[in-house]
Amino acid sequence: MEIFNTYAPDFVSFGKAFGLDGIEKIDTKLSVEDMRKKYETLSMLERKNHPARLSYEVYNKVVSKLKTEAIEDFRIDFEDGYGNRSNEEEDATAVEAATEVAKGMKEKTLPPFIGIRIKPFTEEMKERGLRTLDLFVSTLVKATGGKLPDNFIVMLPKVTIPEQVTTLVNFFEILEQELGLQSGVLKMEMMVETTQAIMDIDGTNPLFRFIKASKGRCIATHFGTYDYTASCSITAKYQEMDHPVCDFAHHMTKVALAHTGIWLSDGATNTMPIGTHRGENLTNEQLQENKDVVHRAWKKGYDHIRHSLWNGFYQGWDLNPAQFPMRYAAVFAFFLESYDDAVERLKTFVEKAARATLIGDVFDDAATGQGLLNYFLRALNSGAITEEEVLATGLTLDEIRSRSFKKILENRKK
To answer: Do 155 and 222 touch, CB atoms closer than 8 A?
Structure first.
């Protein structure tokens, strides 16, 4: 919250930092406090047309999120973020990290999802990756009396062949047997960050074979922006999440795994929103430079995340807590911008018994109905909208969560 409060102390500065719709039209004659008070006296209809609406609503949702659940998922990194260290140092770190996780379990301070990223199963790193996994899980289970955290996951990076996944699954089975864990409790996710993971030597996409090799243990894939762009010979300056080579990989991954139920996550932005100048007693010029640096990094990450959402990747990850504001700002703004339009279109479409409709200049048919349903499901799951706001569509929560527009219509005919 400290960096957020420093560089976005109110909804106006927040809206300007991210360039949210309407912020350029606000009444600059009013102070921020007067504008807030005036806005909060407006009716829902008046708020709907107010230029500060998106900035105010998104800002307050971000504040609430950062205060109550800033971290949803956390990976303890023993790969690129940790680097190559001596075996003795990594052994000690694995034991220490497991001990801290056990402490978090006892004190109920862990995020809803947690796990570790081990080193890849290349010839040079596979023994180190397995040893770290063994030390971490064995230490954790011993410290907790045989328990793992809820939603514990092991991330395997740089997967290029199914045999790497098979090796991890076989090791899971050994650990479960030796430590007295329930069979199948250890789950994995893999990183898509090499060209071999998108197209193998036979000219086919191997991702589904990777999933089959996991024997039902793989629940997610994560895209590795910088390793993947490097494998495509992209120079450092242009290794960005919205580079066309990343879009190609995203669409190939989505098509290959669309029927599997595997979660898909985009990568991270590596530009950190950290001010150049440190310490106390900074000059006004230095403070302004820090603000400019943070706002540029936030906006860059915000645009990258919006690009991911546009491509249908609704999850992503960050490298530094200072990036959290841009993450939640992008997600909440993405969904809130189209809420009113989506309510009207879906409500009208259902009322017309799924006959094609024309609202304004937008034509809706059955496929659009499913797309609108997807919107409300994703918006609700992200926290951008509330259950009450979903009910404005005329659908029930159970209908929304059914994920099938066709089934909703069929059930309503009965």
So the answer is: yes
